[in-house]
Design a protein that fits this description.
The chain is an alpha/beta fold. Helices cover 32% and strands 24% of the residues. It is elongated. Keywords: ATP-binding, Nucleotide-binding, Transport.
Length: 329
Amino acid sequence: MTVVPSVDAAPAPAGAAPVGAVAARAIGLRKEFGRTVAVDGIDLEVPAGSVLGMLGPNGSGKTTLIRMLLGLTRPTAGSAELLGEPVPEGIDRALPHVGALVEGPGFHSFLSGRENLCRVATMEPLLGRREIRNAVDVALKRVGLADAADRRYRGYSLGMKQRLGLAAVLLLPRKLVVLDEPTNGLDPAGTRDVRRIIAELHAAGTTVIVSSHLLAEVEATCTHVAVLQAGSLVAAGELRSLLAAGATGLVITTPHIDLALRTLRGAGATAYRAERTSSEEQAVVVADDGPPAPELIELLVQAGVAVHEARRSRTNLEELFARLTEEPA
């Protein structure tokens, strides 16, 4: 199942690409390693200005797909586009506008964080030599490494190494940022910093692709998702729409559970008592196979049922991910 991505969900931020523009595109991408099919004919469009969370179990093909989009791995079949340029033919024109942290950062262990970042900055074609020092200082401060900037890289913790890799991505404004497991090794404060940085990039109109196992973080930061399973794309689209499609009915909060159930069932609706914790109010769940919600609420009120709240049931990303990636029986 593939859901066509929606690009008209929310107003575009200032400076964002026009609605309908695509930052990255995969067209029938396939990658084989010997007899193993890592990516199997994926078609995917990443809307410009979106924050796309790329999800999937280990071995689902996320990193291989990202590497093909960036021109780091040549596909067995299919094609890719990056910022409107064909890959790999136009990769040299696209990559200066792309910041990527893929499969962990790689730096010289004997140099300090600042020295490593300066070396990276000198290879940025869009960064002038006179701008390097300020760009490095700003990036280090932005990721919380200003105080550790002059320590040798070999003494950095895993989280500090990850922060330095993120700083390299942030040396200059980008049109597209790709982050492969950006919170790997980070403590809660570091994870919050990554969330803040992604929000800042999104507000500036930058397209962000995030590959992550932390579903709560993806749900908090992403506007779109692409879910991979065994090398195939099983769903892609606007996160809000996908979660709404997973809704299971109407949830009605009331202290009159028994009366509500009798009334709803008498009207032909499928209704059952909702599971709850000790801190939650009692509620009933009504399936979508009966009368419309306004009619049900009116019937309950006429029957003397006190309706404290009525809302659509909403699945979360963890539940949606489990449904999409569960193995068939």
